[in-house]
Amino acid sequence: MEDEAEAVVRAIIAKAKDGDMTAARIVVERIAPVRKGRPINLTLPKIETADDLAAAMAAIVGAMAEGKITPEEATAAAGVLEVRRRAIETMEFERRLNEIESRFGKGQ
Question: What CA–CA distance (Å, rounded) separates 83 from 16?
C-alpha cells in the first residue's frame, strides 16, 4: 500500500483540480486542517504559589458553571494549571534543597 500512496495522492489532487469537490475537500482538510478548540478568555489571578492555583481553579470552575466555557475547555485549562503546579512544586523543592545544602553543606 505504501508503494501506491503517492499515486493515490496525485490522483486525488488531479480530481480536485478537475472540480471534484469531495477530492478538493480532502486536499484542503490535509493542507489546512480544521482548528480543534478555540481561544478562551478567562481572567485568572497571577499564579506564583500553590495557593494561587486554588483561586485560578475556582475561576475556571466558575466560568464553566456560568456557561462561559465548556466542560472540555475547563478540563484543558485545568490541565495547564496542573503543569504550572508541577513547575511551582519543582521550583519549591529546588529552593528547599538549596537551603538545606547551604545549611549543612553539600555531600556531607
Answer: 43
Q: Can you read off the three cell numbers belonging to residue 39?
A: 481561544
pTM exceeding the 0.90 threshold for the entire prediction: no
Q: Which one, of 106, 35, 47, lies nearest residue 78 by Cα? A: 47
What are 58-75's pLDDT values in tens digits? 999 999 999 999 999 999
Measured CA to CA in angstroms, residue 108 lies from 53, 80, 96, 99 at distances of: 36, 39, 17, 14
Give the SS3 label for residue 41: coil
Closest residue by Cα to residue 60 from 39, 77, 79: 77
Domain ranges of the chain: 2-31, 50-104
Task: Read off the pLDDT of residues 27-58 as tens digits, 9 standing for 90 and up.
Answer: 888 888 777 777 888 889 999 988 899 999 99
Nearest Cα to Cα of residue 44 among 78, 88, 5: 78
